Inverse folding.
């Protein structure tokens, strides 16, 4: 699994398209796609999940902090099972970093920010590769196993 993060409008989507090509399947929270655990309907070898922070906001609104994290980790584990079921499969997860800057005044937005930070830590721990994209440029901050070049 490859986790790609960075600020809003910093070129994450364009960088992923350039890196992985156009033959990817995309599931985007920005397009209203719901958080899903399974991808049996996906025919592509490369699957891109975009807008993770939106799915995390929905979880934070619907569940308490212990339950949402259980759901999040269960979901990520199912994603990894899908990816590892076929050696050519690759899961690319894009999430906007909303954890920097001014701390929101509203309690629910502070919770969303916290939840996103915790979830990204979980995601980075499980990912084989992690890239941060700033202004269209990537910096690889983790690279392990088969991802080593």
């Amino acid at each position: 699994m490859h986790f790609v993060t960075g600020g809003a409008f910093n070129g994450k989507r364009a960088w992923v398209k350039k890196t992985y090509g156009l033959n990817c399947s995309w599931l985007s929270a920005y397009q209203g796609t719901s958080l899903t655990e399974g991808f049996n309907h996906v025919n592509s070898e490369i699957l891109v999940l975009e807008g993770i922070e939106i799915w995390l906001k929905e979880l934070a609104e619907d569940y308490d902090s212990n339950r949402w994290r259980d759901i999040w980790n269960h979901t990520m584990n199912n994603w990894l099972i899908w990816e590892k079921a076929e050696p050519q499969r690759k899961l690319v997860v894009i999430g906007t970093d909303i954890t920097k800057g001014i701390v929101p005044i509203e309690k629910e937005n502070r919770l969303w920010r916290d939840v996103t930070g915790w979830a990204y830590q979980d995601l980075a721990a499980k990912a084989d590769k992690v890239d941060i994209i700033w202004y269209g440029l990537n910096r690889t901050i983790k690279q392990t196993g088969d991802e080593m070049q």
